[in-house]
Sequence to fold (388 residues):
Amino acid sequence: MSISRRGFLQAAAAGAVELSLPRSAAAASLSELVNTGRSARASHPLNILILGGTTFLGPHQIRYALERGHSISTFTRGRTAPTIHKDLFREVEQLTGDRAGDLSALQGRTWDAVIDNSGQRIEWTRDTAQLLKDSVDLYVYTSSTGVYYPYLGDDLTEDTAVLLEDLPNETLREQPSYGVMKANSEMEARRAFGDDRTSVVRPTYIIGPADSSNRFPYWPVRLQRGGEVLVPGKGHDRVQYIDVRDLTEFMIRLIENRTAGTFNVAGPASTQGMHAFVYGVHAALSSEVSWVMATDYEFLQEQRLRFATPWLMPQGDYYGSARINIERAKAAGLTYRPLARSTWDTLEWWWSDAVTDERRATAWLAGPRSFPMTLEREAEIIAAWKRR
Ligand SMILES: NC(=O)c1ccc[n+]([C@@H]2O[C@H](COP(=O)([O-])OP(=O)(O)OC[C@H]3O[C@@H](n4cnc5c(N)ncnc54)[C@H](OP(=O)(O)O)[C@@H]3O)[C@@H](O)[C@H]2O)c1
Fold:
């Protein structure tokens, strides 16, 4: 089935695409049930500075923190405009500068906590942490499970050793790799604030509305189209992801409880395989799908299909990428929305004005930030799988 934005909106208005997850009264009570007590106001309103705040994670943090009664300042270059929760930015103090050289807007100010979302260089985190260490109580660094690359273990806990330098190889890097940059940035935050005033959050793939990548959106959008759907990987290949709202609420909760430490943030709550994942996404939809489960790694390697996030072929350096231990975060209050909720909200956002027609169209073309495969490529791989 081919879907257009107009078609989606018309069907949604008529209730035709909401059969499996109604949004009106029933959905409201579902989300109340799932999020019981979360939107009550915090007992102590806090002043929170977000380094960043306008792309994906930031707008959700702002929405939830304001709902809890906190005050928010953001610090950006003023280049990226939020695409969701835009109206809420009227209530936000928006400071302008540049982490690469102009932190003057942060000087002489005090906050209860800072969330560092925009740390893309080790020296950026070093400079802001050093500048703010005597004027902010808690530094919350948004890191990544990328620090565990290469993902070699069966159970990657927060105590697993991480690389602080790239392994020597033939490729000369100008900048450290992502995981090494994040691991060193975590250290810079701790060096300035000390272990008891630093909170490091290591999310896996973040999913949900305003996703700046086309990784997770592929699955809801593809499954909504229906037809023969290629699913790479074995049924039990592990997958992990975290809804941006669950991550957000966890981070604000850490600040409210003034919890220091390092936390892996991944879901779902219990182990999930790739087949359970695609069935879970499809459970929010009513499209007619016929599954083509391509379970042979050798075949997938031949087809150069090693990633269709959240699935990564669990071999070599990626073996343990979805074997991230989440017990510490769960004990500290991490909770989970159902996958059907993440799926539905992602689709609603995907077909909204927050996403341009150009993005919706180019996602289907081959390119570095596109969906994991074009429809033509998917059909070719399915044909090759059937010929085996
Ligand atoms: N997406 C995932 O699956 C995933 C997984 C694990 C971890 N993470 C981490 O999660 C974090 C969340 O990123 P996000 O984009 O969602 O955060 P965000 O806070 O919503 O947006 C990033 C912000 O950084 C600002 N920025 C960029 N360069 C800047 C500079 N030189 N000086 C000042 N501000 C600058 C941008 O605004 P301007 O452009 O206006 O400056 C933008 O507001 C990142 O640290 C990422 O590594 C993401």
